[in-house]
């Protein structure tokens, strides 16, 4: 069976640009080598300016995304405000650590813009909540090695929204083409202070 | 026979009253007066510190307590109950918030949490309500961009900060929490024995666009009206929510680190304010 | 009874080793020897119209220890004397260094013998097939190496062959092998073969016109090789220290060495 992290496959990547952030994921859902669905997005909207990417075991991706939808809705009702990406990152971290000895098999990525400071924010986590605050990019999923290579080669700081979209998309598409467990199209979100653009990429269908 | 409803549990009387709560409020209304005034740039909490004997060490008891670096509180009523609530407030602000979100709770959230603790004591088995009312004062950073606000003070137009309190706008908030668990936001208020007369006094003295220094002044004047003994640094206790005190951090050179806004004034500082009264 | 189990806690005075030495001499003991190890490293080859560039880092590791910061992974095959003067074929081997050097030694011998027998240097395609046989001859005790062979074909064009452990091989435009190959390979697909790149403004869906891959100029390829390695060095602990490059043209093989990060 192998690791629970690689049973269903999937990839996610987030990048920081100038006054914008991007987050992208593939669409494959598999059971080992068998592809079951080519429409399984792994990015979930937390609010207008915060997005959560989840790769790993598909059942945990669904459970954890629902859990955070619940937690964030409760936060919004109680505090009458949207959660900021930094605060949400800490919520993700503590929620995952609560399952320290029986973890969810997911590798989350958070991307968003802090509406108070206007600053772009990205971070990644291991399955028990250790936060990786990166200034440039975060990768996760079965194509993480390939994504590291792509991002390290293509990334440059202070890209505008359009350039960021191009860099992020090229990084993801080329990475998942070298990973049998990821691919089958992609979703790409470009988040600006008062605008979010979501694009569907077709990509290789194999 | 009100006694029939006075056994250990808080039980409804046929008229729909929870008399245990009313008794708890009586305990508050017999307590030493405490007051709070919200200014544009801070809040003052003040109370009288009574000592039953001249032999007591004045510094061993404190009535104004820090809960989070930006939130403090004071009480009127039963001292021991208050200290339990201070412990609970400090604990819940960490377990229920700081340890989850890595930031301190906004004032209203803390007030709700403390109110929940007090409400639970009116409904749980084997417990009695807390015999205290609290004044909770705190500063929130806010998430909306700051804007200026125009107010009219005695026919004159004056520009003040738009940070008038709350999670969204940010700024100072002052809340009163009662034994029943109900809570109210105030511009200025008083609790305890002379609450009514103190509030009447505050209504006369309070103006929009008040600054912290003026608020401290008014707080002492109000206290002076009600206080029984002598007023000095040992008999008056003041807590303020003011600008961040980076000197109280205990370290320096950490980028972005802000000192606590809430602090209790030293007896010397109180004396200084009293002499300029 | 407990003494039957190796390492089981014993009564009385304990020893820091699993079995008490003096009276354990006659008891059966299991020894094991594993004939392979992995010395890390990454290699990369790109072929152009009239050249082939081979590159590999020079860090040699065992687990988390660095054995040396300069051990070559590129070897000249054929040519004259111990210096391999005039050689036109380059072999890169990553994986188990001992097997790599044994394989290079054998291939070098074969190519040299070929010239003595036939009076002409071996072609790259012939050498490539011979290398495949060499690897397959040890099908059941393989050389633990990923090999890449580079040179110029009979028409003078860049030729590049990549291999698996047991000799399955293919001629390609570019290939990366070894520890950080998973990082470098998709980068090469994208930057050398222009995979996933389309002509701007050519439309959407099926109207999209793919950017056609053309052999790249030498300067561009050299820069890509360096970029690929500096990227791999950032993210893979087994890659670093130095970058050995060999550029094969009709004029001979030019060797370059560039420093990489040593952390």
TrEMBL record, chain A:
Per its UniProt record, what CDD domains does this chain match? proteasome_beta_type_3
Q: Which GO terms describe its biological process?
A: proteasome-mediated ubiquitin-dependent protein catabolic process
Question: Major location, coarse class?
Answer: nucleus
Location within or outside the cell: Nucleus
GO cellular component annotations of the record: cytoplasm; nucleus; proteasome core complex, beta-subunit complex
Which PANTHER family does the record match to this protein? METALLOPROTEASE TLDD (PTHR32194), PROTEASOME SUBUNIT BETA TYPE-3 (PTHR32194:SF10)
Q: This chain belongs to which protein, by name?
A: Proteasome subunit beta type-3
Q: Which organism is it from?
A: Microthyrium microscopicum
From TrEMBL, chain B:
* Major location (coarse): cytoplasm
Of the GO CC terms on this record, one is: proteasome core complex, alpha-subunit complex
- What is the protein's species of origin? Microthyrium microscopicum
> What is stated as this protein's family in its record?
Belongs to the peptidase T1A family.
Which Gene3D superfamilies does the UniProt entry name for this protein? Glutamine Phosphoribosylpyrophosphate, subunit 1, domain 1
Query: Its quaternary structure?
Result: The 26S proteasome consists of a 20S proteasome core and two 19S regulatory subunits. The 20S proteasome core is composed of 28 subunits that are arranged in four stacked rings, resulting in a barrel-shaped structure. The two end rings are each formed by seven alpha subunits, and the two central rings are each formed by seven beta subunits. The catalytic chamber with the active sites is on the inside of the barrel.
Question: What range(s) does the Proteasome alpha-type subunits domain occupy?
Answer: 5-27
Keyword annotations for this protein, in alphabetical order, are: Cytoplasm, Nucleus, Proteasome
What is a biological process (GO) this protein takes part in? ubiquitin-dependent protein catabolic process
* SMART domains, per the entry: Proteasome_A_N
Sorted alphabetically, which PROSITE patterns does this protein's record hold? PROTEASOME_ALPHA_1, PROTEASOME_ALPHA_2
The protein's superkingdom reads: Eukaryota
Subcellular location(s): the record lists: Cytoplasm; Nucleus
> Which InterPro entries does the entry link to?
Ntn_hydrolases_N (IPR029055), Proteasome_alpha (IPR050115), Proteasome_alpha-type (IPR023332), Proteasome_asu_N (IPR000426), Proteasome_sua/b (IPR001353)
Q: What is this protein called?
A: Proteasome subunit alpha type
From TrEMBL, chain C:
Superkingdom is: Eukaryota
- Keyword vocabulary terms for this entry: Cytoplasm, Nucleus, Proteasome
Cross-referenced SUPFAM superfamilies: N-terminal nucleophile aminohydrolases (Ntn hydrolases)
Keyword Nucleus recorded: yes
Whether Cytoplasm counts among this entry's keywords is yes
Q: Matching PROSITE patterns, A to Z?
A: PROTEASOME_BETA_2 (PS51476)
Give the subcellular location.
Nucleus
Instruction: Give any Gene Ontology cellular component.
Output: nucleus
Q: Example GO biological process term?
A: proteolysis involved in protein catabolic process
Name of the protein in its database record: Proteasome subunit beta type-1
Q: Name its species.
A: Microthyrium microscopicum
């Amino acid at each position: 069976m192998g690791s629970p992290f690689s049973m269903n496959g999937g990839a996610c990547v987030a990048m920081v640009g100038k006054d914008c952030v991007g987050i992208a994921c593939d669409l494959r859902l598999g059971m080992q080598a068998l592809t079951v669905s080519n429409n399984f997005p792994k990015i979930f909207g937390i609010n207008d300016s915060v997005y959560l990417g989840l790769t790993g075991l598909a059942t945990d991706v669904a459970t954890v995304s629902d859990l955070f939808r619940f937690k964030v809705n409760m936060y919004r009702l109680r505090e009458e405000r949207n959660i900021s990406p930094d605060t949400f990152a800490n919520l993700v971290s503590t929620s995952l650590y609560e399952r320290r000895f029986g973890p969810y098999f997911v590798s989350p990525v958070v991307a968003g813009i802090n509406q108070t400071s206007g600053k772009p924010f990205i971070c990644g986590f291991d399955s028990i909540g250790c936060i990786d605050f990166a200034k440039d990019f975060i990768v996760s999923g079965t194509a993480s090695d390939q994504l590291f290579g792509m991002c390290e080669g293509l990334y440059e700081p202070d890209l505008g929204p359009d350039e960021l979209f191009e860099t992020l998309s090229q990084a993801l598409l080329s990475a998942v083409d070298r990973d049998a467990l990821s691919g089958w199209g992609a979703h790409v979100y470009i988040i600006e202070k008062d605008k979010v653009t979501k694009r569907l990429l077709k990509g290789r269908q194999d | 026979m009100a006694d029939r409803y006075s056994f250990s549990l808080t039980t409804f009387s046929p008229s729909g009253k929870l008399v245990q709560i009313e008794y708890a409020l009586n305990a508050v209304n017999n307590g030493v007066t405490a007051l709070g005034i919200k200014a544009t740039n801070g809040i003052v909490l003040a109370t009288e510190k009574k000592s039953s004997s001249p032999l007591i060490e004045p510094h061993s008891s404190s009535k104004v307590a820090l809960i989070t670096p930006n939130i403090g509180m004071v009480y009127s009523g039963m001292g021991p109950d208050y200290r339990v609530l201070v412990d609970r407030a400090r604990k819940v602000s960490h377990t229920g918030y700081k340890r989850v979100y890595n930031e301190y709770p906004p004032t209203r959230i803390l007030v709700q949490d403390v109110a929940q603790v007090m409400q639970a004591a009116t409904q749980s088995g084997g417990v009695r309500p807390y015999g205290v009312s609290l004044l909770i004062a705190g500063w929130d950073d806010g998430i909306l961009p700051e804007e200026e606000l125009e107010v009219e003070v005695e026919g004159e137009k004056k520009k003040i900060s738009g940070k008038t309190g709350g999670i969204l706008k940010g700024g100072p908030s002052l809340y009163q929490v009662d034994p029943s668990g109900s809570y109210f936001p105030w511009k200025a208020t008083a609790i305890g024995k002379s609450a009514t007369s103190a509030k009447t006094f505050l209504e006369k003295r309070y103006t929009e666009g008040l600054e912290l220094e003026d608020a401290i002044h008014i707080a002492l004047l109000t206290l002076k009206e009600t206080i029984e003994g002598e007023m000095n640094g040992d008999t008056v206790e003041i807590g303020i929510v003011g600008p961040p005190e980076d000197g109280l951090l205990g370290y320096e050179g950490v980028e972005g680190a802000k000192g606590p806004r809430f602090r209790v004034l030293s007896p010397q500082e109180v004396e200084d304010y009293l002499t300029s009264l | 009874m407990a003494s039957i189990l190796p390492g089981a806690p014993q009564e009385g005075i304990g020893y820091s080793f699993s079995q008490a030495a003096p009276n354990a001499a006659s008891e059966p003991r299991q020894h094991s020897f594993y004939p392979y190890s992995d010395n890390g490293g990454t290699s990369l080859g790109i072929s152009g119209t009239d050249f082939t560039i081979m590159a590999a880092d020079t860090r040699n590791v065992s687990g988390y220890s660095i054995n040396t910061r300069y051990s070559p992974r590129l070897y000249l095959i054929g040519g004259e004397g111990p210096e391999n003067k005039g050689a036109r074929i380059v072999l890169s081997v990553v994986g188990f260094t001992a097997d790599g050097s044994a394989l290079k030694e054998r291939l070098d011998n074969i190519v040299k013998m070929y010239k003595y027998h036939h009076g002409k240097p071996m072609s790259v395609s012939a050498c490539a097939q011979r290398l495949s046989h060499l690897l397959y001859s040890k099908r059941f005790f393989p050389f633990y190496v990923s090999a890449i062979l580079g040179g110029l074909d009979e028409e003078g064009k860049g030729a590049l062959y990549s291999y698996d452990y047991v000799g399955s091989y293919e001629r390609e435009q570019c290939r990366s092998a070894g520890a950080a190959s998973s990082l470098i390979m998709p980068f090469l697909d994208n930057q050398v073969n222009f995979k996933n790149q389309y002509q701007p403004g050519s439309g959407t869906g099926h109207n999209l016109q793919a950017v056609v891959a053309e052999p790249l100029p030498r300067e561009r390829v050299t820069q890509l090789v360096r970029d690929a390695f500096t990227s791999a060095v950032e993210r893979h602990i087994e890659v670093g220290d130095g970058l050995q490059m060999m550029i094969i043209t009709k004029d001979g093989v030019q060797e370059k060495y560039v420093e990489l990060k040593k952390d």
